[in-house]
Amino acid sequence: MSLSKAIEKKMWPFDHPMSQFNLSRDVLYNLQRFADDIPVADLAASNADDLGTLIHLNKMHGAALLAAAKQFPTIGIRYVLHPLGHDLLEIGIDLDREFEWSEKAHGSVEPFYVWVEDHEGVNILQWANVLFRPSTSSIHLDFIIPIRSDRPPSVTIRVTSDRWMDAGDSAFVSFENLIMPHPSSAHTPLLDLPYLPISTLRNAPLQAVYASEFGALNAIQTQSFWSTYQSQANVLVCAPGASGKSVLGELAIW
Question: Is 209 exposed, middle or buried (0-12, 13-18, 19+ CB in 10 A)?
Answer without folding.
Answer: middle
